[in-house]
Amino acid sequence: MHNSKLNLADIRKEYMLSELDEEIVGEEPLSFFNTWFLEAEKAEITDVNAMTLATVDALNTPHARTVLLKELDDAGFVFYTNYLSAKGNEMKSNVNVALLFYWKELERQVRIEGTVEKVTDIVSDTYFNSRPEGSKLGAWSSPQSSVIPHRKIIETNYAKYAEEFSNLDIPRPPHWGGYRVIPKSIEFWQGRANRMHDRILFTFDSEDKKWYKYRLAP
Ligand SMILES: Cc1cc2nc3c(=O)[nH]c(=O)nc-3n(C[C@H](O)[C@H](O)[C@H](O)COP(=O)(O)O)c2cc1C
Predict the structure, then answer these.
(1) Which of 19, 94, 167, 213 is least surrounded, with the fewest CB atoms within 10 Å of its CB?
(2) Would residue 212 count as lying in a domain?
């Protein structure tokens, strides 16, 4: 018999670690994100750069999965993937995406919404070349998101590419590279006692090219 019922009503936690005010966050959300990221790294959070990426497909159905943040610059948040994957197709038909970080040990969440664009070939090449050989071969071997009849297919592919590129620099596959999420809004959430959390939202005004800051009710 299947039993998939869970009673979770009694799981309860108070958030007590820290607080967030308008002054601490400053006026530049990317720079404040940087500060929080460094604090999360310092706190030795596992997979600190793991973020949920939400996309929307051509039928308006949302999809979410984890990817790794690999670069952050003044323009935005960069991650790498297979351009022909499900998410690649979704971002081709709809450039609106959302990113989510939850650093539970710090009782912090960051929500980012914006549009996505591919990074340049040079940027993708530079990152690809920095990867270990096994990851490079993995990128060649996996038709990401396709249904495959069994695991052996990708293992055979891996062996084939290992042979093909033995003693050669492994080039970046044309179907693999980076995307940059250019943020339109960034919200910082700090857990507080009694569900009276702090939420500071920044939205970017594309006309006057400025970030505006708001406090949201929890
Ligand atoms: C911790 C973690 C990190 C991941 N990082 C990436 C990543 O950087 N790029 C990627 O393509 N998939 C990554 N994945 C796998 C994705 O979550 C997902 O399974 C895959 O990209 C296929 O997604 P799609 O079919 O929606 O395109 C990661 C998964 C986990 C759990």
Answers:
(1) 167
(2) yes
Residue 110 belongs to a domain: yes
* Residue span of the structural domain in which 28 resides: 22-131+174-216
pLDDT digits (tens, 9 = 90+) for 63-114: 999 999 999 988 999 999 999 999 999 999 999 999 999 999 999 999 999 9
Quote the number of domains for the chain.
1
Please state the φ and ψ torsions of residue 196, each to the nearest 5 degrees: -95, 60
Residue 146 CA to ligand 1 centre (angstroms): 14
Contact between 148 and 45 (Cβ < 8 Å): no
Dist. CA 174–CA 139, nearest whole Å:
10
* CA-nearest residue, atom 19 of ligand 1: 65
